[in-house]
Amino acid sequence: MTKIVIASGNQGKIKDFKAIFSDFEVVGIKEILPNFEVEETGTTFKENAILKSEAASEELNLPVISDDSGLSVEALEGRPGVYSARYSGENATDEKNNAKLLDELKGVENRAAYFTCVLAISIPGEETRTYEGTLAGEILTEAHGDGGFGYDPLFKTLDGVYLGTIKAEEKGKISHRGKALEKLMNDKEVFKKLQK
């Protein structure tokens, strides 16, 4: 089975990738390089995704996919954005981040928000390519379901789907990550190189 390396230690993301890439062996970078860390100094999802994929690809001398993603809330001027994972501070957890978001949106009527995912693919000796996907919806006033990870339990899509209540396979078909991966898979030339 073809192995695809993901430059992420986030088990929620790895699970999403496994659900979408069900015909491949998906391996998180920490399984190969337990101490792999990249400081996310970029100010955009794209910059951070490229930082991670290039560092991992260079170290392994293999093709690597990385993902930088997050939630942007209209009423919060796009926050938490690139700081989604560490929104509640240095020792952030999904629970703390969700609590902070709900607190900041107390009494706010406009709850429009969207998820963004930028995938970067670094192949040794080639220029890094990126693919972007988004998912629009709104922030709920309380959590629905305990599925997914991150802000999923607080998010309802424009079609009325509660992200925290659906399986990873279903989420993969509609999510920002799923849409970005679809663009990657449609880029046949690159996807072929990834499978070597």
UniProtKB/TrEMBL annotation:
EC numbers on record: 3.6.1.66
N-terminal signal peptide: none
Pfam families: Ham1p_like
Annotated GO MF terms: dITP diphosphatase activity; ITP diphosphatase activity; metal ion binding; nucleotide binding; ribonucleoside triphosphate phosphatase activity; XTP diphosphatase activity
Class of enzymatic activity (EC top level): hydrolase
Residues that hold substrate according to the record: S8, G9, N10, Q11, G12, K13, S69, F149, G150, Y151, D152, K171, H176, R177
Binding site for Mg(2+): E39, D68
Keywords associated with the record: Hydrolase, Magnesium, Metal-binding, Nucleotide metabolism, Nucleotide-binding
Role noted for this protein: Pyrophosphatase that catalyzes the hydrolysis of nucleoside triphosphates to their monophosphate derivatives, with a high preference for the non-canonical purine nucleotides XTP (xanthosine triphosphate), dITP (deoxyinosine triphosphate) and ITP. Seems to function as a house-cleaning enzyme that removes non-canonical purine nucleotides from the nucleotide pool, thus preventing their incorporation into DNA/RNA and avoiding chromosomal lesions.
Subunit structure comment from the entry: Homodimer.
Superkingdom: Bacteria
Cofactor note: Binds 1 Mg(2+) ion per subunit.
Catalytic activity: XTP + H2O = XMP + diphosphate + H(+); dITP + H2O = dIMP + diphosphate + H(+); ITP + H2O = IMP + diphosphate + H(+)
Cofactor(s) it depends on: Mg(2+)
Protein name: dITP/XTP pyrophosphatase
Gene Ontology biological-process annotations: nucleotide metabolic process; purine nucleoside triphosphate catabolic process
Recorded family membership: Belongs to the HAM1 NTPase family.
Active site: D68 (proton acceptor)
Cellular-component GO terms for this entry: cytosol
